[in-house]
Amino acid sequence: MPAVSSCAVALHTSAHTAQISTILFDCDNTLVLSEPLAFEACAELSNAIISAYAPSVTHRYAGPELQREFVGRNFRGLIAALEEKHGFIVPAEDLDGWVEKELGTTIGKIKAAAVPCEGVMPILESLRSEGKYNLSIVSSSALPRVLASIETTHQDVFFPPSNVFSAASMSPPTTKPDPAVYLYACQQLGVEPKASVAIEDSKSGATAATRAGIPLIGYVGPYHDEGQGGG
């Protein structure tokens, strides 16, 4: 049975038991196979950042390595992790510029090549036709990237803009595993956390949902190698 179908079976079981009304999907590598494209862009800019602010550090990243280490974080959170790991600081006045560059590069790659995760479109069609659940997206990624992802893959028909939430586009910006974006989404949707269920593919995303008191389904569909997924 495909991983997405397994996820759907778990979802229906959980929803029946706990009277779930709202499904909160992560986007990247849960709905849209976007992480490899995004981490390509992240690698290019991460290496430029290391060259600029930590010239003594000789290590350079490729996309798959960054994905293994930092899946589930947005680029702002990834920069913070690189600063901690390699002992440098990106000046505050430079940070927004790097984040903006990464966003533009990633959106370009997503518009050119993003596809839905395997099996997800029939599941979304089925959920929409049943009409039992309010469908929403809760992502660490910046809102323009999330919208580009679902528009490119024609998933925007399932998720109205008012049901799409971004940690990176909050004020102030956050990233999973901070539960702030999940709590905000539940508040805006008018649903108690315990009456929703989150579907997450990464450790940071799963942690964010759990900290928000939201029942969780772990999705490992895109990850074929042991240890590749974030949790």
From TrEMBL:
Domain of life of the native organism: Eukaryota
Provenance organism: Kwoniella newhampshirensis
Database matches in SUPFAM superfamilies: HAD-like
InterPro entries in the record: CbbY-like (IPR044999), HAD-like_sf (IPR036412), HAD-SF_hydro_IA (IPR006439), HAD_sf (IPR023214), PGP-like_dom2 (IPR023198)
Designated name of the protein: Uncharacterized protein
One Pfam family it belongs to: Hydrolase
GO terms, molecular function: phosphatase activity
